[in-house]
Structure prediction request, 71 residues.
Amino acid sequence: MYLKNSPVPDKETRKFSTEQLPQIYTAMAMVSKPGLAQLIMKILFKFQTPPIPIKSFTDDKKAMEWLKKFL
Prediction:
């Protein structure tokens, strides 16, 4: 998943997506530019454990290598 500037989803949307993620994905790598998006994702994952393995990257090749562990 490539992260772009987008609004933060509301609480109901976040709840729904959390419930649906394990139904659709085994793991998710999120690729974004270094900076605020990376920091927000790290803080978010510290306080709320995602329902699947999720990791944030700035390099898409490293993201792909990490995802291969879940095949």
Remarks:
- The chain is about 50% helix and 10% strand.
- The two ends are 17 Å apart (CA to CA).
- The first strand starts at residue 28 and ends at 31.
- The beta strands are 28-31, 54-57.
